[in-house]
Amino acid sequence: MTAWAVMSICDEAERLARDLVAEVSGEPFDVVWIHQSESVQVEVREKSGSTAYGPPADAVAWGVTFTASTRTRWARIDLPGGGPGGGDEWVAETAAGPGWLGFLADASDLLAGTLDPDMVPAIIAQIVVPRLATWCAVYTAEHGAGPLRPAYLWHADEAQIDTLRDLLGETQMPSGEGPAVLHMGEWQSLAFPLTARGRRLGIMCLGRRDRFPDEGLQLAEDLGRRAALAMDNARLYAQQAAANRALQRSLLPPEEPKTPGLDSHVIYEPAGETNEVGGDFYDLFPMREGVWRFAIGDVCGTGPEAAAVTGLARHTLRLLAREGYGVADVVDRLNQAILEEGERARFLTLLHGEITRVSDGLDISLVSAGHPEALRLRPSGVVDTVAQPQSLLGVFPEADFREESVHLAAGDVLLGVTDGVTERRSGSRLLDDDGGLAKLLSECVDLSARAVAERIRRAVQDFAPEPSADDLAILVLRAP
Predict the structure, then answer these.
(1) Architecture of domain 87-245
(2) Which of 135, 205, 209, 329 is deepest in the core (most CB within 10 A)?
(3) Which PANTHER family does the annotation name (predicted)?
């Protein structure tokens, strides 16, 4: 009913369905709703079996149809503005009447209900037909400029859509700024420009067999303005979302880290509907045979400002590491680079380390710069912290960072997370209250790095019913 833009008769249609279902004989049945130009037909189809049947309430037509194996009972009600004569019958009500004001309000709600630019033309056409016209065609311009292209076509009689499409293909579309007449044989056809914020985004073409009433023209123009604004909003939203995704991808490794000989796994999930560019990042890359560097960090805030620091951090880490700087020296130079950003600088927490494969496991040297505690899980189930917190980056120019060493024996697991995990909130409680993250990790004995990361992510999702408002990054290393 929403797709047909006839929400106002939902109650009557549901009451019809209830009346029809009340007469079923006890056999299995289907309820079918059929859009028929100016009406909605409700059918209850069940296996043949005869019971008395009378007209249901509110039905303008009803009946029973039999086939060899089924009995179909149906009833029909008129759509608002419908009636005899099909899509060309116009309800004698001014454009300012309460019925049409409700129609425009419903249309606005439907248009505002999607931010998918490809869905807006379909909604426009299905709002217009059959209340304002027998058919509607929407043409749009690629990226709001350039030649018009067909976006959606809808006819009250679906069997006529192909014929109408061919006819429209032979019709010259107008290029003016106001409503224009289309010359399409027996059809009374008009084209309304879809213009928003000074840009022409497309046109809305309407057709009916009789003349458009003046009230209909006013309504169509009003609807065109609302539709154009909804279309422009959807395009802007889609463009922003695409830009955010592209920027986010540029701030993360180009592909999933490959670490032969090292059991590792990384999970990254940005927060927000549009995957707004966040401040969390990770990296894991080889230095030489049997040696890797890793980093997991969190920049204060989101958006372009945070993204600038995120990009600076990830690329500086890689560059300095490949230049041969030790872990502590890399963190120190990154701190200075962030401070040199001046007013654009953002605070950054970082866990950065170097992994070396040895005969009895992994040797790791690391620095935790204001980052949530890194945890080690032993095969016995014991969990301990492996690095003392030092100064976060972008605050103190005199900060002095020092490396710490940790050994992962066979089966040991190292877990690093951002505060999207530790500060996941449910009411007044945080996930890491009373060592909550350590307790979760202690339940991951004998699991692979991937399984540990997935277990932590699932726990974060299940901790609270509402979506997380913060980015999430999880890095797991397991000694073979």
Answers:
(1) 2-Layer Sandwich (3.30)
(2) 205
(3) STAGE II SPORULATION PROTEIN E, STAGE II SPORULATION PROTEIN E-RELATED
